[in-house]
Amino acid sequence: MRALRFILSSILLIAVAVVTVYGCGVAWQSLIVSLGGADRSNDRQPTEAVALSSLPQYTQKVAGKAWFRRYFARMVFDDGNGAGSYTGILTRWDKQRVRIDILNSGGPGMHRYVVMLVRRLNRMQQAVTFVVVDGRAEVTIEYLSHDAYRRTIGDDNTVGNCATRFYQGPPGLISAVIKVDAGVEATSVDRKATIVHELTHALGFSGHFRKRSDQRRSVLYYASTLTNWSQADAAAIRIMYSSSMRNGMNVHGVDRALRRFAAGRR
Question: Would strands 26-34 and 158-167 be described as parallel, antiparallel, or unpaired?
């Protein structure tokens, strides 16, 4: 969901003004995962990882199907104006290398989990190399206490937030800040579900799935319980970082690009 939750510092205001003078306004976007959504205790069990060996064939097959075009559009575009709305533009990383810095400990196994996600992400697509670093980075991940999360995000009904900065055209995404309410997400499985959800937003996917039938289908279900990308999620990531997609596309341009991808015309 989109929200204007940030008061920019004077330095950042000057930087944005300079960029705007040159015709490339920088936008903020805040994307969250909400509380709730799990009915049974086993809803929070880790999900099986996608079969990466069959991903290229699967992606080529589903790209031409109407259900997947709707699925991809729902992942990419914001639905803030209603379930049937597809607002905004496609934004993705155009950099060849994107660094991810985990600012503090998320508890046992969490650093290893993020490294595993990044490795799988690099196998899903080859356009951008994502790396976990200790230091300056384009993407940051921070675990906060509940009180600190509320003070920072200003929302008591969410457990995760991803704020992105991007150009409304090339080079697209330029930064992403992920924050997790570790006070509410008390277990590693809870935090994993939130991390993979917010990391997917950080890749440029702005939408959410809201139908209960999608609860076990995508990490971008609005109250996700999944800890791994589904096969359809992985196909969407692969297509997002293919030569078919470009920063600044609207929903109609994305639909045409998907049809070209399915036909083998990139």
Answer: antiparallel
| The two three-digit tokens of residue 5, written as one number | 């939750």
One-letter identity of residue 98: V
The residue extents of the domains of the chain are 10-262
pLDDT tens per residue across span 193-226: 999 999 999 999 999 998 888 888 899 998 878 9
pTM exceeds 0.90 for this model: no
Kindly report the CATH class assigned to 10-262. alpha beta
Rg (CA), the chain: 18
Q: Give yes or no for a contact between 32 and 162, defined as CB atoms under 8 angstroms apart.
A: yes
- Determine phi and psi for 222, rounding to 5 degrees: -60, -25
Q: pLDDT by residue (tens digit) across 133-192?
A: 999 999 999 999 999 999 999 877 899 999 999 998 889 999 999 999 999 999 999 999
- Give the side-chain half-sphere CA count within 13 A for 42: 0
Asked if 251 contacts 73 with a C-beta cutoff of 8 angstroms, the reply is yes
